Amino acid sequence: MITFNGDLKKIGGIKWKLEAAHAIGKKRIILPEENRDDFYNLSEEEKFGITPFFYNNFLMLTILYIHKLSNIVLYNFL
């Protein structure tokens, strides 16, 4: 869930979200930091080989994504 401030809050159904991502061929997933324990408490089989990326804030996620696309060094933000 994303708040008005851009904070990423805990979501439910991680197991089913991973299953759905796997079903459409995804290998990576973005999850709220608050779901880190939920992910690592799943069995390897339930993770479907998907790599998680955990973030607290959508703005930081956006900045990192733009950085990756443009190869701009964002010293003040990282």
SSE map:
Elements: H1 14-23, E1 28-32, H2 36-40, H3 44-47, E2 51-55, H4 58-70
Parallel strand pairs: 1-2
Please tell me about this protein's structure.
GO terms for molecular function: ATP-dependent peptidase activity; serine-type endopeptidase activity. InterPro entries: Lon_proteolytic, Ribosomal_Su5_D2-typ_SF, Ribsml_uS5_D2-typ_fold_subgr. It holds the Pfam family Lon_C. With about 80 residues, the protein is of the alpha+beta class. About 40% of the residues lie in helices and about 15% in strands. A two-stranded parallel sheet has the order 1-2. The protein is globular, with a radius of gyration of 14 Å.
Quaternary structure of the protein:
single chain
Number of domains: 1
Number of strands: 2
* Order of adjacent strands in the largest pleated sheet: 1-2
Q: What is the helical fraction, as a range of percent?
A: 40-55%
Short description:
The protein has four helices and two strands, in the order H-E-H-H-E-H. With 78 residues, the chain is of the alpha+beta class. It holds the Pfam family Lon_C.
What are the salient characteristics of this protein?
78 residues; alpha+beta; two-stranded parallel ribbon
